[in-house]
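Exercise 7. Predict the joint structure of the components listed below.
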Amino acid sequence: MFDQYLGISPKSDLLLLQMLGEKLHKRSFLHVSSTREGGGVAEILQRMIPMFTEIGIQARWEIIEGDTKFFNITKKIHNAMQGNPERITKKMWDYHYEINGKNADKLDLEADAVLIHDPQPAPLIEFKKSGLWMWRCHIDVSNPKKEVSDYLCRYCEKYTAAIFSVAKFARKMGIDEFIVSPSIDPVSEKNRELTDEEINKTLNKFQIPTNRPIILQVSRFDRFKDPIGVIKAYRIVKKYNDCILILAGSPATDDPEGEIVLNEVKECAANDPDIYILLLPPFSDKDINALQRVAAVVLQKSLKEGFGLTVSESMWKGKPVIGGAVGGIPLQIIHGVTGFLVHSIEGAAFRTRQLLNNIEMAKRIGENGREYVRKNFLITRQIRDYLGVWYIMENKGRSIIEI
Amino acid sequence: MAEITNSFEFRQCVSILKSTGKKARNLHELRDAISAVSDESIFHHTYQYFLKGHILEYTNDFAHWAGESLEERALSEQLSNIDPYDFKNISDLRNKLIEVIDNYLGQFPEPREAMRGDEFCFNETVTLIFPVGTRAKNLAEFLTAIKYIDAGSIYYHFYEARMRLGGGIDDFSRWIEDYLQKKELAEKIRAIDPFMHTIEEIRTHIVETVEEEVKKDMEVVSRCLTSI
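Solution:
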């Protein structure tokens, strides 16, 4: 598995990974999350665990179990941590703790290093027996509801360290706080190279013509992804450049607003034959990959965003990406170098026109973007960082460590 | 030509980012935090800016934030003009940063606030140093290696070394002078201004300079052979 990344990931990342693997050889590394399928955390852990094992670390991944009541509570906690108004009663917090306690009884939590992912299993720290415990926060907690955040922090502060995706998500908790960006897997179905035949299969499936440049946004039909803004930007571009717009996304069944937003998008598209609204079922990774590969320009015109890994996915395919300057998007797009950051519909339209009319510029930005992702946002870098944090915590107090 | 026994071992550093939890919303808070944060944090936001593959619009994170988030262009230019390699230690650099901000605040005492979510976040790093498994025994091998090693390795030997060794000396020029006895070449490499280039530009300059020297050496060898 490790070999798959040779020639793709930076050599130094692979080298350091192996060296850290030797330093932590035969040590145990436990990951605990709330689901084995669906969502970015599960997706990346499925790939990471075998790689840890391959470099000599005894990695395990455990899942906490809970009933609907538990997951309704954790959903509310999750939403409140992302800034939505939610009321979590004392009873709810007690139930959150109680279910974690039951899981602690069943799970083997003994390991040299334990990484607890997200708020759902955070109370497990209360049942720690030994080892180095770290809490990994994958969500945007830059503007959480204070009451909920304060309560959750009672658990988080008991960990030895916390890991956030973006610096501005971190808050002062009195423990070591590391910043580790999320990543994409270059050899996964969503990102691997595709043959022309595979790409054509997707194009035929959705009846997409290739005689004009394609503008693409891949995202859920969610107001924060601003699909209406994308259509408006496309209309401005269309006055000057004949092009096609594809809005591809999942229906977001867990989001009651999803259907409403989708209807608004359809209404706004007003039967324009050059706007393709594609509702992709789960596990459409290969289709998403193909669409990103045929696009001339990719948009991620979000108004609010966690990290926005779809940006890195498209950059990895050498595509020029125009992104809203929110969340983790500015970490991926260096304005004018690896893409363009925009703040308005007009900005998105202008940059799209610029890229459609200047093929050389689009090519250069696409190449820069791919290289930037290679250096910063591949899974091997994230694994390297996790092991780095573990090793650093074992050598606490030193700011320079020779391996 | 005899091979040098003291080969150059390429190493590299990788920095793992840590949050200090400190944030600044305006210039007053930035100034106060700069005076209080760790040396590691100042180091990260100034010297390590060169690790980020930047374009030379700004030269440190403070200038970047002042320009992009506060839109204080004049201050941004003044902060960008601070060359960290001019200072003997972090403390002097810290004082210079504070002096520049204080002077600006003297002229414009009510600076604007950054937008919510756009605050300056003070970070620091823990640096892991490791050998990359590449050694050069002579200048030709060095030339081949420098073309292909990771940018992080050039950062370690060319930028980070200046702090480690002091006196504006980098690992490359030191090895070239001490072990290859090529003082003139070492001086040419030392003359490349780290502050004015990205890491990739530094690589290009070193390659060009060393290539010229290797060609010169080859011409000498071929002239000797012709005379035989």
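Discussion. Chain A has a mean pLDDT of 94.
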